Amino acid sequence: MQEEIQIQVEKGLMLPLMEEFYTIQGEGYHKGTAAYFIRIGGCDVGCHWCDVKESWNPAIHPPTGVGQIADNAEKFSKTIVVTGGEPLTWDMGPLTRLLKDKGLDVHIETSGAYPLTGKWDWICLSPKKIKLPVDEIYPLANELKVIVYNRDDLRFAEEQALKVSEKCLLYLQPEWSKRDTVMPLIVDYVMANPKWKVSLQTHKYLNIP
């Protein structure tokens, strides 16, 4: 039975589901939009400031059929956000096909560290220094969101911005634990470089998931 489940996971027919919840998108271009979040377990990028480290180990999250996941999502919202962990660790094709068949708008939040699978209406690329995105995802990104932990992340942000398309929206977002320190840096930088916008984790200010 365990071997059969593993085969289903490898095919993307089952995914290690950490949690799913209906809330308000707090970040980036779609902030303020009601959305159903599907958080998939599994990530080896390993950001030391990650606020969902419990998502890293896929073995502790139950393999769940993508049909069940899609049926749950349909009950709540037209906007679906697939996040992690790093969702592209897995084949997202089967899940996104089911969601699109239901007429839903399907978004992904990804580091881009693995090849893109699945069909997406919106791709939020949030690159990390320690495991850079694969080259082919850059021109497909609708939104580039760089997390700012220190001043060097502004340099990294510009480096990454050179790789996305001209239509890609550019966001700088303070890492939550450093927000008081880096926010003045971000504000000054965006005012001097207005191609960038500030993204805040507004859901944390609202005290919602």
- CATH C-level: Alpha Beta
Quickly count the helices.
Answer: 6
Strand order across the largest sheet = 3-1-2-4-5-6-7-8-9
Q: SSE string, helix = H, strand = E?
A: HEEEHEHEEEHEHEH
CATH homologous superfamily designation: Aldolase class I
Structure characterization notes:
With 209 residues, the chain is an alpha/beta fold. It is built from six helices and nine strands, in the order H-E-E-E-H-E-H-E-E-E-H-E-H-E-H. Strand 4 (79-83), helix 3 (93-101) and strand 5 (105-110) form a beta-alpha-beta unit. It has one domain: Aldolase class I (TIM Barrel, Alpha-Beta Barrel), CATH 3.20.20.70.
Question: Would you summarize the structure shown here?
Answer:
By secondary structure, the chain is α/β, with parallel strands linked by helices.
Which secondary structure elements does this structure contain, and how are they paired or packed?
Layout lengths: L1 H9 L3 E11 L9 E7 L22 E3 H9 L4 E5 L9 H9 L3 E6 L11 E4 L17 E6 L3 H10 L7 E6 L4 H14 L3 E3 L3 H5 L3
Parallel strand pairs: 2-4, 4-5, 5-6, 6-7, 7-8, 8-9
Antiparallel strand pairs: 1-2, 1-3
Helix pairs in contact: 2-3
